[in-house]
Amino acid sequence: METIKKNKGIIILLIGIIGIVIVNWDKIMPSKQSSPTEYSESMLFRTTEELNNLDTILVDVKGEVNSPGLYEVGFDLRVGDIIGVAGGITNEADLSEINLAEKLTDEMIIYVPKKSEISTVFIPNDIVKIIVEIKGEVAKPGIYYLNKNSRLNDLILIAGSETLEADMTSVELARVLSDGESITIPKKVETKSEVVVEESPREIYVEIIGEVINPGVYLILEDYTISDLIYEAGGVTVNCDLSKIDWNLTLCLGATIYIPSYEDVIDETEISNLININTANLESLMTLPGVGNIIGQRIIDYRSEYGDFLSIEQIVRVSGIKDSIYENIKELITV
């Protein structure tokens, strides 16, 4: 009894240590040993919230320990603890460069080297994971856990591949991903082509007389030709002299077109090659001195709006035709 009383403090301390060991037995001793592939697959399908709430971690112990392997242990252990869990070190182990007090982290690799050994620690890619987010035009956007050194193409395939709307022209599929990265697969931009609305030619009234089947006034499109107008009038008669028709004549609002017969005598003005300012087309008007493309078109527009010129002197009413121009062309035109 006296011995027990003398060593009472030591006995209480030992009982306390035994109690702590019993309470934390699951954290100290590994609950299970699993392969890298099994653990990686289980981690791949866990949500971010589940990963944050893990109370165990996976640690790979390699090198000079009695029982190297993967251990799932409590997250609050240190390097020295996991070496003890792995059966302790061998006689050849060198702990001089190892921080035994370092806290363990998930997927950590502990390598215990031999004495006087200089080597490179091999870290397999199937155990080191990165977390990457993918958004945009993929079938299954979200957060994914991938092997280290995975490419963007790998991530897209895991996410169900790109959609039909994805624009992959600027996506670097061979790029190596980094931990914590966020990827957005863009959508194709719809380019709206400009719709060119062409103005339809306006309708004008034109009279046709002479050697046609149905003489009269017709409502036709402004871009009609003499041939079109003759067709509307039912065609020419057997007495029509086609050689006397000016097929290049421009139709204008209010114009009267005469289709000649074989008996018609050619007018003196036609013999003298005078240009009729009421019927001449743009090319003919441009042959007049001082009348170019712009003024010629103004003459056509004027007669379309106000009707035929009643005399050659009225041509000066057209914008741009000054007295000097009129003096040069008055002997060359007629109405």
Description:
With 335 residues, the protein is α/β, with parallel strands linked by helices. Among the domains are: 129-185; 198-265, no CATH class; 267-335, DNA polymerase, domain 1 (Orthogonal Bundle). Helices cover 27% and strands 18% of the residues. A three-stranded mixed sheet has the order 2-1-3. It has a three-stranded mixed sheet with strand order 5-4-6. The longest helix has 16 residues, at 8-23.
What is shown here, in short?
This protein has 335 residues and is α/β, with parallel strands linked by helices.
- The CA-CA distance between the termini, in Å, is 150 Å
**Morphology:** rod-shaped
Percent of residues in helices comes to: 25-40%
Q: What is the total tally of β strands?
A: 11
Radius of gyration: 50 Å
Per DSSP, the total helix count is: 12
CATH topology name of the domain at 267-335, in short, is DNA polymerase, domain 1
Q: Which superfamily, in CATH terms, is the homologous superfamily of the domain at 267-335? A: Photosystem II 12 kDa extrinsic protein
Q: Give, in spatial order, the strands making up the sheet with the most strands.
A: 2-1-3
CATH architecture of the domain at 267-335: Orthogonal Bundle
Q: Which CATH first-tier class of the domain at 267-335 would you pick? A: Mainly Alpha
Oligomer: single chain
Uncertain regions: pLDDT < 50 for 5+ in a row?
Answer: 30-37, 118-123, 267-272
Report the sheet with the most strands, covering strand number, pairing sense and barrel closure: 3 strands, mixed
* Overall average pLDDT: 79
Order of SSEs: HHHHHEEHEEEHEEEHEHEHHHE
Query: Which class best fits the helix and strand makeup?
Result: alpha/beta
- β content, as a range? 15-25%
